[in-house]
Amino acid sequence: MKKKISDPKQRLLETATSLFYNQGYHATGINQVIEEAGVARASLYTHYESKESLLLAFLHQRHTDWMEGLQRFTDKATKPKEKIAAAFDFLFDNNEKEHFRGCAFLNILSETTDNDTAVLAVIQDHKKGLRAFLGEILAKEKQGIKDHVYLLFESAIVESQLYRHQWPVQEARKMAVGLL
Amino acid sequence: MKKKISDPKQRLLETATSLFYNQGYHATGINQVIEEAGVARASLYTHYESKESLLLAFLHQRHTDWMEGLQRFTDKATKPKEKIAAAFDFLFDNNEKEHFRGCAFLNILSETTDNDTAVLAVIQDHKKGLRAFLGEILAKEKQGIKDHVYLLFESAIVESQLYRHQWPVQEARKMAVGLL
Amino acid sequence: MKKKISDPKQRLLETATSLFYNQGYHATGINQVIEEAGVARASLYTHYESKESLLLAFLHQRHTDWMEGLQRFTDKATKPKEKIAAAFDFLFDNNEKEHFRGCAFLNILSETTDNDTAVLAVIQDHKKGLRAFLGEILAKEKQGIKDHVYLLFESAIVESQLYRHQWPVQEARKMAVGLL
Amino acid sequence: MKKKISDPKQRLLETATSLFYNQGYHATGINQVIEEAGVARASLYTHYESKESLLLAFLHQRHTDWMEGLQRFTDKATKPKEKIAAAFDFLFDNNEKEHFRGCAFLNILSETTDNDTAVLAVIQDHKKGLRAFLGEILAKEKQGIKDHVYLLFESAIVESQLYRHQWPVQEARKMAVGLL
DNA sequence: AATGAATGAGCCTTCATTCAT
DNA sequence: GATGAATGAAGGCTCATTCAT
């Protein structure tokens, strides 16, 4: 079961990923998606029920990829404190690679209302997953410390997007490490 | 030179404020704005050059109002530690009143690319203003403490929006107060 | 692969032809075009990139049709002098059929600035084609005569539009024939 | 009864003249007119009944100015043949000064339908005036020669606009002079 | 599975004009 | 006479989706 190089479904997802992430969901039209993906308009609807379902696919994929990246960074270290430091290094690396576009989930969250229950659920699940992931690294710490690190971690992402600068990552990293 | 009760410019700004904040900038059409404001389509352009300039007006107004609100809360306290606690109480209060829609500036930031220089500048100025405000309260503290409080403050806003829950505000408040 | 009776692209072109020619380009709105063509608004953009590209399509089609008509008239005669006379008869005929709306290309030229390079090029190409066509009929004449006939031919079109009268065609015809 | 330097009515007329002539009537919005004239929107309607009446004012003024210019050129010569040559030199001069925008009246004619009776009348009157003017210079010639020169004169204007080149003026001048 | 055509609704902006001051 | 505000209609174009092939 080989995948074609030019698998339309995959190309649509990749294009949507790039566009939704970099310019936002509502600012991205499906015209742009299908054009950059190089597929026919109707083909989008062969593979995805709607624009929103393409958004959901993007978020799911992003969750997997992002958590894998985080895992890869933290796996390099052994001690909890070092793992946490490595987690912040992952943010630093992402900022470089993705030009400070911040968190895909929080960005979409900003475009989401209470009516978009499916989208909201995926976003919250992602963050719960992250929180749990950091919590496991800090299994021996008290809940207060876990939360504290998590909140600093979140700030680091958002604030480096805001200022287009790494200082929040670096400062938050110091603070988090200092807590441990 | 009295102001009319139904000043259209003001109504447009109020309507835009509500819509941009609650459902996002790109998700809000000019049609909805003028309809809810009860003005003719072209009247919008008598007062605002473009949709983006209406957005900028909203952000400026929001900055003023929000900082005033924050000021009002912190003025109630005298000691720095209490002022910081009061600042978090302001967030708590906002969440109740605005149904966890989070930070207007960070939400718009998510819909903003590097090309939107004017918008980006207003957002960054707002956050610099907030950071400076908190920094003055903590004038006697080291820069590291100031930053730490600021990052927790930001987290509190974002995460309570994400979870539609006050716990991040309450936890971050405890942590911040604990630092002082 | 049969063509549908109500081919929308063709209907759009025909409608645009009639409207652009009879009331001008800028005076014709897209709304009027789609309404009279009986197609949905967006369908226009399925077939034509923009209003200007519809204009270009109109001019191209008009060039072909008009030159064919001219050809048909001049083919009836054998001697150059008679062919030229027949060319003026073609103008006479057009004026009757099209109610003295003059030259589609010169009319659009009036609405064209130096920035509209694509449109300007089509217009100039049309006139170069006409000039070459007349020049071939008068192959044995000197260049000065060729130009003279061409200029009278152009005057005949423009002035009969201006006065809503055939006299310029008839006078110019006499003059041109007299030159040969 | 002095005229103010910044007479609004005059400024409006001058601005409209420039814009209607250079970019066309329908392509010119009153916003652009009032902005470039530096007057308030409603002031336009203080002085002119409507956009069309501004157009008529432009055409009337243009007629006067243009005929004066033509007069000035032909006055330099004494013999009919030289006066006609001078008339063509006037066209040459205009083309240089006005960047080959052609005849203001014929351009507006292209944007005019049979319903625009007032506009059409002004245009026709202008051309009748020109034709009479040339006719008077050639008072001793037969009607056929008068018409011939007139038609070449008209061609010279239109075709130099079309090709953005002086050759039609120069060629038509030679032909006209050759007829006398 | 893939596609080009078609669509009603909506996008943001400007139109020419009128009104109250 | 001059003006800023206000307006309904229209400007050209794009939206997300569906349909017939």
Automatic annotation (TrEMBL), chains A, B, C, D:
InterPro entries referenced in this protein's UniProt entry, alphabetically: Homeodomain-like_sf, HTH_TetR, Tet_transcr_reg_TetR-rel_C_sf
Gene3D superfamilies: Tetracycline Repressor, domain 2
Superkingdom of the organism of origin: Bacteria
DNA-binding region: 29-48
GO molecular function: DNA binding
Entry keyword annotation includes Transcription regulation: yes
PROSITE patterns: HTH_TETR_2
Pfam family name, one: TetR_N
SUPFAM superfamilies, sorted: Homeodomain-like, Tetracyclin repressor-like, C-terminal domain
Keywords from the UniProt entry: DNA-binding, Transcription, Transcription regulation
Residue ranges of domain HTH tetR-type in the record: 6-66
Keyword Transmembrane helix: no
Identification of the protein by name: DNA-binding transcriptional regulator, AcrR family
Organism from which the protein derives: Chitinophaga arvensicola
